[in-house]
Design goal:
Elements lengths: L25 H27 L3 H24 L4 H6 L7
Helix pairs in contact: 1-2
Length: 96
């Protein structure tokens, strides 16, 4: 008798955060650092390939993509420009 597979129950997803947390953990920092590297690499590639492209329409679209990556890079950078030590003081400590 063939066995039928039942779909696995969907894991409950946490609601999306509307604003970023004030405290950046080491894990958050490392992830942001990776994302900054990816965005920087994407910007560099867009710049390079836009210069190589002879079709002006395609060059314009590649430049737009590069500008998008620049905006993302600057947005991520803003999240790293806070005083993490001051923010940690407002976090309740366990055992107190």
């Amino acid at each position: 008798m063939p066995q039928t597979q039942t779909p696995a129950p969907q894991a409950q997803q946490a609601p999306l955060m509307q604003t970023p947390p004030q405290v950046i953990t080491v894990k958050d920092f490392n992830y942001l650092k990776d994302m900054l590297s990816w965005e920087l690499l994407a910007m560099k590639k867009c710049s390079h390939f836009a210069k190589e492209c002879s079709d002006t329409d395609i060059r314009t679209e590649i430049d737009k993509a590069g500008q998008m990556h620049l905006r993302h890079y600057n947005l991520l950078l803003k999240h790293l420009q806070n005083d993490n030590n001051a923010a940690m003081k407002s976090v309740p400590q366990q055992g107190q």
